[in-house]
Amino acid sequence: MVLGIAAGSTYTLLTCFCLASCSYSFVQRLQFVSTPHSASFSSSMSPTPEASALVHDPLVQLHLPSPLILGSSSFTRKLILKEMGVNYHILVRPIDERSLGNRDTDKPSDLVLHLAHAKMNHLASEIQAGRCDNDLPKQNEYIILTGDQVVTCNGKILEKPESVDEAKAMVAMYSKHPPSTVGSVVLMHLPSKTIVAGVDTATIRFKNEPNEGLVDRLLEEDAPILSCAGGLMVEHKLVKQYIERIDGTEDSVMGLSKDLVMRLLKELAEKLSTANGH
Length: 278
Fold this sequence. Notes:
By secondary structure, this protein is of the alpha+beta class. 31% of the residues lie in helices and 21% in strands. It has helices spanning 49-55, 58-61, 75-84, 108-128, 164-171, 213-220, 237-240, 250-254, 258-275; strands at residues 12-13, 32-34, 39-41, 68-70, 88-90, 142-153, 156-157, 180-190, 194-206, 243-247. Strands 1, 4, 5, 6, 7, 8, 9 and 10 form an eight-stranded mixed sheet that branches. α3 links the parallel β4 (68-70) and β5 (88-90). The protein is elongated, with a radius of gyration of 22 Å. The two termini are 41 Å apart. Residues 4-49 have low confidence and may be disordered.
């Protein structure tokens, strides 16, 4: 989880925010004990680890097709879905994000929704055109997740630092101007193209100014601060001592709000159930 921050306009697309979706079938392996006249379940049979994981998968509980198709290669998004018990399959088809939206005039929430929808539309069209058949589970239905995130700080774009000195300058901003993250999630069901979307925000408040030596210490521990917007790993033990609180949730800062994902999964399940006359 890396909070990314730098100078620029009003906000930035978080392309590397390391701070900072068949027919449904659930197959449970059961063992039968044969008798002359009937078959009964063996009470000694324990579910396989795979079956136990499926039981706790929110998609399975909501009667949605699983696994979730994750249109992102973000390490933190994968980690968060794993923590949620979501069985997922990664499928990424990149788009030219920089050509979309207006980073000078768009509201952050509008921008992240616009980009997440663009990612979704491109990925869904690739799937429906059959160009992803070799990279997908063999199913008739899919739930796809795409998302996007920007970071704002003092009305400026927060981007990846180009040097250690720039990273140190960014770090010095945090106590005076708390950075915020704005993240979107879009879910789509295929083949119906039923879609839901939402946005979540979080603000990181520092209790005192991070020491300039913090960047050097992070680099000594191989933290990828120059690869991520702002170059500050909020979850890192060296950074946490400077954080007073997060207004929002840490998973939202990391790039994927668990609460938002669950709310949208439930909303999507309700829409599909209504459409099917249930």
